[in-house]
Amino acid sequence: MSTLPLIAGNDIKRQFVQPFAWILLALTCALLAWQFLIALDAYLRIAEKLDALPNSQGATDLIAIPLLRSLSGLLLLIAPLATMQSLAGERRAHTLPLLLAAGTGNLAIVLGKFLGAFVTVALIVLITVSMPLMLEFGTALDLGRLAAASLGVLLFGASLTAIGIACSAWTSHPALAAAAALVIGSLLAMIDMGARFQGVDNALINWLSLSTHLEPFYSGLIASVDIVYFLLVTLLALLLAARRLDSLRTRG
């Protein structure tokens, strides 16, 4: 595992010396900042009326949580874009055999690639959280709920990043890897949509959905079952990626 930080650090440097990561960050932050300003303007227009109502919603409900919900939807696209070059790019450039021949373990390579890509995802989450957090200087935020929601989005992003790494390991075409990760991530996020429309919300299909385990975090509820679920999805995806590398190593 000693080479893991080297692989992760190399991937981080490689991402941020290219314009793609910066463009992705800029466009995402610009879109979320625009939504934040619109929500803030709407909140300021009705703030006095809300103060007169008992148990009314505040800035956390009307600004922060909707912003993080929008971010979770964007992560379905951001994570595949951040991971598509991780292993597929190595294979396309014919540099993966060199990495495999260096004696680095499959899991170390996969974890290094995961950490390298997750830095971009985590950075976007932190920038997004900082927007409503600035409102603490002028209004009372529910910081505990905001922290719980941020943790949930980070775990959600980690799962999508791991899925992207797995898809990148199974193809040598980055665009195909991104498309596969987008489809799989979207499917897992919406797999129980039909069941929910039918009023079913406590079945196995609901439990399998990423969204089912993300929703409690928005309410400020941190349950071990939801954390374990995201960790299991992340671990399973990374193990599949490592298994793929093992087959590539065996075939030479």
Radius of gyration: 20 Å
Broad structural category: mainly alpha
Count of discrete alpha- or pi-helical segments spanning 4 or more residues: 12
State the shape.
globular
Measured between the Cα atoms of the first and last residue, the distance is: 22 Å
Largest sheet: none
User: What is the count of distinct domains?
Assistant: 1
Helix content: over 70%
Q: Count every beta strand, where a strand is a DSSP E run of 2 or more residues.
A: 0
Strand content: under 5%
Uncertain residue ranges = none
Mean pLDDT level: 88
**Topology order in helix (H) and strand (E) letters:** HHHHHHHHHHHH
Describe this structure in words.
The chain has 252 residues and is mostly helical. The chain has one domain (4-251). The chain contains 12 helices and no strands. The protein has helices at 4-16, 19-51, 59-83, 88-92, 96-101, 106-133, 143-169, 174-190, 193-197, 204-207, 210-218, 224-251. Helix 2 runs antiparallel to helix 3 (59-83), helix 2 packs parallel to helix 6 (106-133) and helix 7 packs across helix 8 (174-190). The longest helix is centred in the N-terminal third of the chain and has 33 residues, at 19-51. The protein is globular and about 70 Å long. The two termini are 22 Å apart.
